[in-house]
Amino acid sequence: MSKPPLIPFSTTIFVRDTCLCLHVQRAARALARRFDEALRPLDITNGQFSLMMSLNRPEPPSISAVASLLAMDRTTLTAALKPLERRGLLQVFVDSDDRRLRRLRLTEAGERLLAEAVPVWKRTHEAVDAQLGDTGPDRLRTDLHALT
């Protein structure tokens, strides 16, 4: 005779159908795949696009500022920077006023690649926005922002 489970299967179904974290994770993965596919001809991922876009500022940001913006820890960000740095798309350099700080900037090649990627991102984003309807994109951004 088998013993009854500690957690009934109905609880699994309930969590599957109601868990906001699960639904956001699934949607994030689906969006990531969609943008990865769109950016593949440029040989960058959606994460690399976001990272490069975060460097498109009037003044080169610190590693900490970029990590904060992208909600990443510094170690993960440092690992994500390496392939882009090896490709010559960005530079990591020491701050001239505070030698402890590392700053980031796009190279000319990085700026050119980002300029190519922005129209691809825009087209893909317009398609996603269209799926969400007239007020869907703004509502979704507002709701997601409320969770952060």
TrEMBL record:
> Which residue range or ranges hold the HTH marR-type domain?
17-148
Please cite one Gene Ontology biological process associated with this protein.
Answer: response to stress
Q: Which Pfam families match?
A: MarR
InterPro entries this protein is in?
HTH_MarR-typ (IPR000835), MarR/SlyA-like (IPR039422), WH-like_DNA-bd_sf (IPR036388), WH_DNA-bd_sf (IPR036390)
Q: Name one GO molecular function term.
A: DNA-binding transcription factor activity
What is the protein name stated in its UniProt record? Answer: MarR family transcriptional regulator
**Taxonomic source organism:** Sinorhizobium glycinis
